[in-house]
């Protein structure tokens, strides 16, 4: 009896809870079954809308738990959150930016032949619980060729001990919009005022540590007229920014085509969520963020953000490559974020180059050309060979972006003879997942 009681109490010690519609599975994962059959891209977008991804599975216990969770109502197979860009598990990457599937995977040997992944649920050739790669069939119309139900995952969060509650509770943090903070009061402030007001209520302007957090914040402003909000970035030395709440600058989402300088940062909450430097005296709405305190005994406020254990592993994302220079020319795989440039940049381009550019499964690629002074020819195509952009014949181009419809693109560049007086200095582009 005592033993049973202990088991029942155990969960409340951690106070882990899930957002509405999600179930806490195995005391560690917040999962939601979506029965509507969708193509892979639509499934990812559905999960993204609540700050999540398709389910990620890092060990055999979780695999069994996800299998059990999905094994209801005659489901045949479900999409899971891993994308493969080659034929080995080391080229398969988790949606949540936690790295590759080398440490754990459940692919039958030699079965990695396509970019999207499903878990087999029904008994088909005894493959229950195994992972099967499939074409993503991302194009509108094509998605109906392989629709499947799927499981979404969001990070578990905690219940605040205070009954004051937390309306926007995500990944162990509470977010409050300036509009809600002061009742009907002033929703806008200068960068300095915004920071002070957040501090007055025991919060900070937000530090942002992942693409998932960017998406969560964008969704808070979906359907509003708010275009930009102050976030907690503060200019440090040189071009570096720091987070006002003292957490590490472990994720960067600066707009590569914003050349304005300033000591404060705003986030574009109606666009892709990119961050731009602004003068701190400008007035914007803002967002406050605080760690959820679950224990009423005053604990020292740590400056580390314990809600993001995944961040460190994000550094593993880049595959070892035999790079010749900073251009990434002919790299076998370039997983965003990263950059590409003509070989020899900023000197005259001296080589034909191709780049295999990829984003994690839930995202698209933003290719931001921040420098172009070349006679060369550059093409971008998606995985189905569709042209996303052809650039040649214009020596000087003002900075411009190109967005891919999916997460896979091939870029090719070929130097061409000079046809004008300008010196050929090649091109440079920043690649982000959006
Ligand atoms: C997690 O799930 C597995 C498989 O369903 C189960 O065997 C295990 O007991 C679960 N662990 C917890 C803590 O619930
Ligand atoms: C490797 O994967 C590609 C698709 O990414 C597939 O066309 C090819 O057949 C696979 N090769 C092997 C040896 O499995
Ligand atoms: C905003 O909300 C609408 C309606 O709920 C939804 O259809 C749309 O996809 C959302 N936009 C984004 C960027 O999430
Ligand atoms: C957005 O602005 C328009 C025009 O100013 C207004 O009619 C609308 O009510 C506003 N919507 C919200 C959600 O505030
Ligand atoms: C890149 O590959 C192309 C063709 O595959 C080759 O012609 C070119 O020399 C390579 N460039 C570099 C810098 O290795
Ligand atoms: C880009 O596409 C155009 C038109 O198809 C072609 O003429 C050109 O050679 C291509 N350039 C590269 C670098 O692939």
TrEMBL record:
PROSITE patterns: C_TYPE_LECTIN_2 (PS50041), CUB (PS01180). Keywords: Disulfide bond, Signal. Coiled coil: none annotated. Residues 329-434 form the CUB domain. Residues 26-136, 170-289 form the C-type lectin domain. InterPro entries: C-type_lectin-like, C-type_lectin-like/link_sf, CTDL_fold, CUB_dom, Snaclec, Sperma_CUB_dom_sf. It comes from the Eukaryota. Residues 1-15 form the signal peptide. PANTHER family: C-TYPE LECTIN-RELATED, PROTEIN CBG13490. This is C-type lectin domain-containing protein. It comes from Caenorhabditis nigoni. The gene is Cnig_chr_II.g8108.
